[in-house]
Amino acid sequence: MKAATSSLHTWLSSQNGILMPDKEVHFFDRDVSYYQGILEYKRLLDCSNGEKGLVGEDTPAYSIDSRVAGRIARMCPKVKLIWILRDPISRSYSNYYHAVRAGLESRTFLKAVSDEVNGATSKNCLRYIYRSNYLLQIEKYFECFSRDALLFVDFNKLIANDKSTLNSVLTHIGLNDTQNVEWNLPHSHKTEVFPPSVLNFYLKPIPRKIRVKILREASLLLSLTTPPKISKDVVILLKSIFYKDIKDIEDITGLNFECWREW
């Protein structure tokens, strides 16, 4: 679980009057889709089967692509946006293990973040610090949207099924009938992990597509309940990067993230 986006998606999709496609749409961050225009977006969103209701989607990559905020604002100026904020150290580590499970990452976490700090990581999907730099991302959206277009949600309150937090989500998107709402967010804390360097070493001669498939299957067979703890060296490095922005993030979102300082 990186930031509970999938859990929120499942919960919203279960509510009467809310329609969401099953998969991430990736319309605004992929030129091949975006330049086909609004009709293509409507096609990708079509999951109604004749039903009427609020239509939404969740594509986490929208937060890190600098082009997306302006594209959304131009095409959907009245949109309501929801942004889940998890403590950036935990989020970075979860993102790292997501890449490990997908067979995309073979470095240790310390090596991965050190490479990124030193400018040696080119692929965005492996830039765990960059993807957890909330302040930079949020400021880009505030250039294109008014404050009331965005709702910022505390990850910890969300996964704790805090009713006021869940209700704020429904109020923000305009769903006022909450009589039959189930105030229980579906989620799992299980994180499947396996020793990445060993498997990747022996599988490197195999074509990438086949290797990724094998690694995904292996991650299920060699799963553990929780990943190893983050080493102190990594925590010190990430604290030096993220902690300077916490106060600004609190000011810009109106939320309290004191728990982020407890690492």
Shape: globular
- CATH fold node name: Rossmann fold
Number of domains: 1
CATH architecture descriptor text: 3-Layer(aba) Sandwich
Report low-confidence residues grouped into runs of 5 or more.
189-194
Summed up, the helix count is: 14
Number of strands: 4
Write the layout of secondary structure elements.
Elements: H1 5-13, E1 18-19, H2 31-34, H3 38-45, E2 54-55, H4 68-75, E3 81-85, H5 88-101, H6 109-117, H7 128-131, H8 134-142, E4 150-154, H9 155-159, H10 163-173, H11 196-203, H12 208-221, H13 232-242, H14 246-253
Parallel strand pairs: 1-2, 3-4
Helix pairs in contact: 6-13
What does this structure look like?
The chain is mostly helical. The chain has a single domain, classed as Rossmann fold. Helix content is 46%, strand content 5%. The chain has a two-stranded parallel ribbon. A two-stranded parallel ribbon has the order 3-4. The longest helix has 14 residues. It is globular. The chain starts with a helix and ends in a 10-residue tail after the last helix. 19% of the residues are buried.
